[in-house]
Amino acid sequence: MPKLNLSNYDTTHFLDEMLDENGQIRSSYTLFRDRIEKMGWKKLNFLQKSTDRAQLSLGMTFNVYSDNQGTERILHLDIIPRIIDGVEWDKLERGLKQRITALNMFVADIYGEQKVLKDKIVPKELIFSSATYLKECIGLKPPKGVWCHISGSDLIKGDDNQFYVLEDNLRCPSGVSYMLENREILKRTFPEIFEKLKVRPVNNYAHNLRDMLESLSPQSEATIAVMTPGAYNSAYFEHAYLAQQIGAELVEGRDLVVQDDCVYMITTKGLKRVHIIYRRVDDDFIDPLIFNPNSLLGTPGLFNAYKKGNVVLVNAPGTGVADDKAVYAYIPRIIKYYLGEEPILENVQTYICDEEADRKYVLENIANLVIKQTDASGGYGMLIGPKSTLKEQEEFKAKIKANPRNYIAQPMINLSRVPTLSEDEIQGRHVDLRPYILFGEDIKITPGALTRVALKKGSIVVNSSQGGGSKDTWVLD
């Protein structure tokens, strides 16, 4: 049986997380590398194909809205895990707790006294022009003062071997089900090495999620529902999976009714009171009486029931204002303003096209920058300057000039690479990291994360809708 040969493994021009700049194996990967070298290609390929079949059998699929073929895909799980040292992870935890604490205070302030605007830490025009700012939420006081109960900030590692926050996701961050199922599959794939490396467990996430949700309601036996847009939503597998894991009801907006400002679920035995809704429906669609009148996904009267304190919505409506990519540029200042601390995790340098000096720089250097639409996600609305054509650059220049508020720019970051199984050899592929944060009576971060990987050689776009895959993330104890 042929041994694994890493002699062709390319580490030039990029930080590699398995090999250092001298081509030496990093200590966190030593045991794993020794194990897979003994396997050979036949065994590795067999394990990879078994993993693909396991994902299909578990229903770990998603839809791509832009794909007119109407087919479901698996989020390809590469069987070579990403391994993170425990000391490095502990720093990430501290940084994420600091960041989500400040962001929660920011959202509360934006819909409250607006001190951060009055003190000119953040321009008020930036907030009031944000598509995700909801004036209907002014004056709201969610249970226990928590707005962003579930979040998933995206992190990248650059050439300096440091993690940076790329963006924040405070509305309906997805992917946690893949993190949990990836772990179950990899534990069966590499049981011996998993145990020897003392990988920190992630299987308490569902328990922590349930505890967090229950902590928000005064009811001793609260009924929890996961609200989904329906079976055709790209993340429906996750909605159903999480409802099953935490023992919650899986409902659509049409399954709920509001009476006397209380929310009820329609059942075969009559109406049943619902106290907590973990919603996976965007703000604009949760209540057609308040937001989008054409929405068929929400429940009429739901927002008013929430305002009256008769139901808990997780996450709270209005948190999307902190997801705005233009607001992202001010988060270091926000942390300093509310906590009096320097950020533990730094942002990627960001140019705000709505500011004249920044806009001038972006237009003059667009070929070297990554341009992002502030209200887009999933890898859409982007221009990767160094990989774009002159025509594409001119088109984005016109868009920026027409609506500068809608765009930011960042330098091209050489995302770190990790070993990935690719046909007949192991090659480095670019990755990012999405840890999941639960915020209730305290803040809990699962010691693992969804690593998203750009499966196409040379690509830096890791989004599943753009052909990306995933890896299990092993945090060593």
Can you give a write-up of this model?
- With 477 residues, this protein is of the alpha+beta class.
- The strands form 7 sheets. It has a 5-stranded mixed β-sheet.
- Helices cover 31% and strands 21% of the residues.
- Helix 1 packs across helix 5.
- The longest helix is centred in the N-terminal third of the chain and has 32 residues, at 27-58.
- The radius of gyration is 23 Å and the shape is globular.
- Strand 5 (154-157) and strand 6 form a beta hairpin.
- The chain contains 13 helices and 24 strands.
- Among the domains are: 94-152 and 200-339, Rossmann fold; 349-411, Dna Ligase, domain 1 (2-Layer Sandwich), CATH 3.30.1490.
User: Averaging pLDDT over every residue, what do you get?
Assistant: 91
Shape: globular
What structural category arises from helix and sheet content? alpha+beta
CA-based gyration radius: 23 Å
CATH architecture of the domain at 94-152 and 200-339: 3-Layer(aba) Sandwich
Unreliable spans: none
How far is it from the N-terminal to the C-terminal residue, by CA?
A: 33 Å
- State the strand order across the main sheet: 3-24-23-20-19
Largest sheet geometry: 5 strands, mixed
Pfam families: CP_ATPgrasp_2
InterPro entries: ATP-dep_Glu-Cys_Ligase-2, CP_ATPgrasp_2, UCP005522
Domain Circularly permuted ATP-grasp type: 81-454
Summarize the structure.
The protein is of the alpha+beta class and 477 residues long. 31% of the residues lie in helices and 21% in strands.
Secondary-structure map:
Layout: H1 27-58, E1 61-62, E2 73-74, E3 77-84, H2 86-110, H3 115-118, H4 124-128, E4 150-151, E5 154-157, E6 163-167, H5 176-189, H6 191-196, H7 205-214, E7 224-227, H8 236-246, E8 249-251, E9 256-259, E10 262-267, E11 270-273, E12 276-279, H9 302-307, E13 312-314, H10 325-328, H11 331-339, E14 346-347, E15 351-352, H12 356-364, E16 369-373, E17 382-384, H13 390-402, E18 407-411, E19 417-422, E20 425-434, E21 437-439, E22 443-445, E23 450-453, E24 469-475
Parallel strand pairs: 3-24, 6-14, 7-8, 7-12, 12-13
Antiparallel strand pairs: 1-2, 4-21, 5-6, 9-10, 10-11, 15-18, 16-17, 16-18, 19-20, 20-23, 21-22, 23-24
Helix pairs in contact: 1-5, 2-11
Domain Circularly permuted ATP-grasp type: 81-454
InterPro entries: ATP-dep_Glu-Cys_Ligase-2, CP_ATPgrasp_2, UCP005522
Pfam families: CP_ATPgrasp_2 (PF14403)
